[in-house]
């Protein structure tokens, strides 16, 4: 069971989580809890580290540490009512806060912040939360121990900031946590791991879900539960369409498509271990635990529910590379993709007409300048005539395994958008047919989502 930042935001919520875990434990379940940082802590750590690396103000570090300590002391006082456990927890927090302060002061004097340092600093959010969650469980009379991801056996490469899992992790986690499960509820920090040298690494933002999935696969869990502040995976963002509803069941492939296409409920790599080990994943609401949530399973339910969800990605930009010289010139696309890869640019969508006279790409907005510069410097000859770009765009994706082999879904998508007067700038559909994604201007994006949500009657049970 993984609990996100809003589930462990403060002492009251941590107490609620501990009581929830106790209830499931008393019902005869063997559990591992994976915790995120307290609300706002990771952002605070990263902002402070970034600022002090530039301004070198030790006073700012001292002020931040005082606030951080108070936040965690307050949480301890509310979440734990046993004086002895409370005192142990305070000692544990003090030790870690002291290490963190030294590291931040070091960054002040060095005036630089490496990826390795960022991983080390950002790991403290979870490392301060886990002892409090574990202490709260113990104060309810259930044995519990807290572990960092690395201590629990999650080992990665040294790609700081977005480390890749090493296969040994599954065996290591099983040997560390397996023997404890009969009596104990281990609490493991989400998001963080360590490399073979024992140096802290992180699994990327949102990586707590990934941690839970790795641990679930390692201990042969019956299900992996991701507790969040939502009822499950929704048919679309409720902020855009208030009538959107939770999807009761969805396949792994659909959930992966949705996570890649901007649905923030799941970390894109989260369910890889679950898929590999065929473990169902359930997304539930911490504050309404009786609600069944969304179950993510291997089977794809086809015909019924052709389209499962509509999702919107903003903060993207469109690049259009065109030129008569591209027609029939072998290797043009390869050069474009190599140039962008070398510039560290991730491509979200690709579309090329059969005429080969232009190639359209969607990239993250913050990588636009690097992308345009990379393509322009690659093609100094007359092969490419123009590299144009547009920031005012969004990607809309229609996702559903039922679309595979069902005629007319794309027709229905584009007919309904045409009727609503929405202009489509670019279209991309993979041969998997699990999604149709397209680009529209930013000012028409919300209308596009509402139109499609209504067209496919996603608000109906």
Structure description:
The protein is of the alpha/beta class and 461 residues long. 46% of the residues are buried. The strands form 3 sheets. The protein has an 8-stranded mixed sheet. A 6-stranded antiparallel sheet has the order 13-14-12-15-17-16. A 3-stranded mixed sheet has the order 4-6-7. The mean pLDDT is 91. 41% of the residues lie in helices and 19% in strands. It folds into 2 domains: 2-221, 3-Layer(aba) Sandwich (Carbamate kinase), CATH 3.40.1160.10; 309-455, 2-Layer Sandwich (VC0802-like). The chain starts with a strand and ends in a 6-residue tail after the last helix.
SSE layout:
Layout lengths: L1 E2 L7 H16 L6 E3 L5 H15 L2 H22 L3 H28 L4 H8 L1 H16 L6 E2 L7 E2 L11 H10 L9 E3 L2 E4 L4 E3 L4 H12 L5 E5 L20 E3 H9 L11 H5 L4 E5 L8 E4 L11 E14 L9 H11 L4 E6 L5 E7 L3 H11 L7 E14 L9 H11 L6 E4 L5 E7 H14 L6
Parallel strand pairs: 1-2, 1-8, 2-5, 3-5, 4-6, 8-10, 9-11
Antiparallel strand pairs: 6-7, 10-11, 12-14, 12-15, 13-14, 15-17, 16-17
Helix pairs in contact: 1-3, 1-6, 2-3, 2-4, 3-4, 3-6, 4-6, 7-8, 11-12, 13-14
Q: What class do helices, strands and sheet pairing give?
A: alpha/beta
Level of helix content? 40-55%
- Shape by Cα distribution: globular
Distinct helical segment count: 14
Mean model confidence by pLDDT: 91
CATH superfamily of the largest domain: Acetylglutamate kinase-like
Strand-residue proportion: 15-25%
**CATH fold-type name of the largest domain:** Carbamate kinase
Write out the strand line-up for the largest beta sheet, numbering strands in chain order: 3-5-2-1-8-10-11-9
Task: Just name the CATH architecture of the largest domain.
Answer: 3-Layer(aba) Sandwich
- CATH class (first level) name of the largest domain: Alpha Beta
> How many independent structural domains?
2
Q: What is the rounded distance between the termini?
A: 27 Å
Compute the number of strand runs.
Answer: 17
Radius of gyration: 24 Å
């Amino acid at each position: 069971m993984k609990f996100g930042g809003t589930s462990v935001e403060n002492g009251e919520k941590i107490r609620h989580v501990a009581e929830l875990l106790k209830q499931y434990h008393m019902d005869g379940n063997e559990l591992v809890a994976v915790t995120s940082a307290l609300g706002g802590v990771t952002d605070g750590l990263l902002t402070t580290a970034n600022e002090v690396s530039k301004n070198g103000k030790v006073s700012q570090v001292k002020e931040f540490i005082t606030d951080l300590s108070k936040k965690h002391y307050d949480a301890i006082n509310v979440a734990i009512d046993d004086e002895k456990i409370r005192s142990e927890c305070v000692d544990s927090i003090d030790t870690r806060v002291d290490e963190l302060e030294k590291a931040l002061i070091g960054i002040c004097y060095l005036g630089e912040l490496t990826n390795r340092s960022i991983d080390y600093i950002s790991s403290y959010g979870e490392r301060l939360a886990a002892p409090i969650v574990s202490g709260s469980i113990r104060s309810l009379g259930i044995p519990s121990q807290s572990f960092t991801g690395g201590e629990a056996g999650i080992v990665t490469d040294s790609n700081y900031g977005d480390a890749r899992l090493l296969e040994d992790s599954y065996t290591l986690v099983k040997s560390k946590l397996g023997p404890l499960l009969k009596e104990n509820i281990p609490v493991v920090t989400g998001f963080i791991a360590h490399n073979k040298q024992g140096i802290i690494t992180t699994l990327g933002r949102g990586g707590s879900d990934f941690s839970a999935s790795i641990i679930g696969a390692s201990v042969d869990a019956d299900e992996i539960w991701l507790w969040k502040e939502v009822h499950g995976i929704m048919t679309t963002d409720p902020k855009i369409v208030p009538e959107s509803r939770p999807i009761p069941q969805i396949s792994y492939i659909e959930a992966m498509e949705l996570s890649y296409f901007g649905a923030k409920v799941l970390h894109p790599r989260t369910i890889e271990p679950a898929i590999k080990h065929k473990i169902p994943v359930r997304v539930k609401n911490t504050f309404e635990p009786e609600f069944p949530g969304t179950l993510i399973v291997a089977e794809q339910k086809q015909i019924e529910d052709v389209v499962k969800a509509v999702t919107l990605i903003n903060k993207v930009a469109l690049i259009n590379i065109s030129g008569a010289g591209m027609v029939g010139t072998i290797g043009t696309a390869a050069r474009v993709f190599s140039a962008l890869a070398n510039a560290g640019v991730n491509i979200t969508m690709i579309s090329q007409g059969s005429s080969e006279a232009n190639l359209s790409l969607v990239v993250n907005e913050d990588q636009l300048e690097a992308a345009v510069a990379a393509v322009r410097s690659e093609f100094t000859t007359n092969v490419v005539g123009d590299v144009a770009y547009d920031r005012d765009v969004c990607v809309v994706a229609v996702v559903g395994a039922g679309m595979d082999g069902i005629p007319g879904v794309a027709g229905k998508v584009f007919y309904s958008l045409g009727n609503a007067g929405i202009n489509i700038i670019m279209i991309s559909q993979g041969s998997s047919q699990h999604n149709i994604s397209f680009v529209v201007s930013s000012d028409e994006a919300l209308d596009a989502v509402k139109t499609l949500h209504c067209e496919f009657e996603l608000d109906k049970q």
